[in-house]
Write a structure and sequence with these properties.
The chain has 352 residues and is α+β, with helices and mostly antiparallel strands. It is 39% helix and 12% strand. Helix 2 runs antiparallel to helix 8. The termini are far apart. Bound molecules: iron/sulfur cluster (SF4).
Length: 352
């Protein structure tokens, strides 16, 4: 066992004794736990919902249905209506099913994580939270806040989601046998108020001394999974020039870069290996490529220079001749502006 297994819970609980958030479903630090009904109701409401949003709903539910038996006896429609606005309505249906399962047990919640897990709609997190907070069981409570704090305390470098296993092992190591409920709530509070996702306040942190991430850049942890590589597409754009002008087209109104002025291209779905024919018969020479990242794919655009003479075949209604010395004013999107710069740079090189 790590030395931090002793130092972390003691330092955190001392901090919690003075800094605990005051929340309507909680008991103050070191005092007897709140009723299981309050703990369970708040934990279900807090799933995917902020503390600020839950507050008024928690008060409304408790005023209308003060016990789990009252809630179990409620009309489904009344409960759904009272839940309106909190979102994730499956939670309200599970809430009722669970209340009725507890009512079938005489209105008494089971006291262990394992038994709580058997109730309808109680996932691993909620069962652990209720077991720890309402019954003082040494359950391992890991929500997103706790996950972040533990990943930083131990500088766990394995990216999520695989890193969750190591996070859980470490969380288990530092969870004390005594005051397990206060410890769980203290970790949640530390994550919500000090060890925040951005700009963690390490100078105010009671765990700064044992924290491994503090000196390595706390925001690097937990390590996020690498983003999936974007698909690569290839295409060709065509540079057709005459007497100090270049042929530009208007892109179709819908689709990528819709309605914008651009170089003619092949639609970017071809392989773009530099051997294709452009919009005119004649000689085409590859002149390098530009790369551009769009939101959903990366594009490798091969620029092809035309050196034939068959310009009359360009239909006037499909494009326009644009003066090269005013190319900046054409409003070309970045991709085609890059391609134009490439073409013009080559001409300068040739002219030198
Ligand atoms: Fe989080 Fe900083 Fe505290 Fe480490 S020292 S637990 S990174 S707030």
């Amino acid at each position: 066992m790590d030395a931090s297994a002793d130092t972390i819970p003691a330092a955190l609980l001392a901090w919690y004794d003075t800094q605990a958030r005051t929340l309507p479903w909680r008991s103050p630090p070191g005092t007897p736990p709140p009723e299981p009904y309050r703990v369970w109701l708040s934990e279900v409401m807090l799933q995917q919902t902020t503390v600020a949003a839950v507050g008024p709903y928690f008060a409304k539910f408790l005023a209308r249905w003060p016990t789990v038996l009252d809630l179990a006896a409620a009309d489904d429609a009344d409960v759904m209506a009272a839940w309106a606005g909190l979102g994730y309505y499956a939670r309200a249906r599970n809430l009722l099913a669970c209340a009725r399962a507890v009512a079938a047990r005489g209105g008494v919640f089971p006291e262990t994580e394992g038994e709580l897990r058997q109730l309808p709609g109680l996932g691993a997190y909620t069962a652990a939270a209720v077991a720890a907070i309402a019954f003082g069981e040494r359950a391992i409570v890991v929500d997103a806040n706790v996950e972040r704090v533990v990943a930083r305390l131990f500088a766990i470098g394995e990216p999520l989601p695989a890193g969750r296993k190591a996070i859980r092992v470490r969380a288990e190591e530092i969870t004390p046998a005594a005051r397990a409920g206060d410890f769980a709530q203290a970790m949640m509070d530390l994550g919500a108020t000090v060890c925040t996702t951005r700009n963690p306040r390490c100078l105010l942190c009671p765990l700064a001394e044992p924290c491994a991430a503090r000196r390595q850049g706390a925001e690097r942890f937990p390590v996020k999974p690498a983003k999936a590589a974007k698909p690569q597409r290839r295409g060709q754009a065509y540079w057709i020039e005459r007497a100090g002008q270049v042929w530009l087209v208007q892109r179709p109104g819908t689709g990528m870069l819709g309605g914008m002025r651009a170089l003619p291209d092949d639609g970017w779905s071809a392989r773009g290996d530099g051997s294709g024919q452009g919009p005119l018969a004649g000689h085409w020479a590859p002149a390098g490529a530009v790369r551009h990242g769009f939101t959903h794919f990366d594009l490798d655009l091969q620029l092809m220079l035309y050196s034939g003479g068959d310009l009359d075949r360009l239909a006037a209604d499909s494009g326009e001749w644009w003066p090269l010395d005013r190319i900046e004013e054409a409003g070309l999107p970045t991709l085609f502006a890059k391609a134009a710069r490439l073409a013009l740079a080559q001409q300068e090189d040739l002219g030198e």
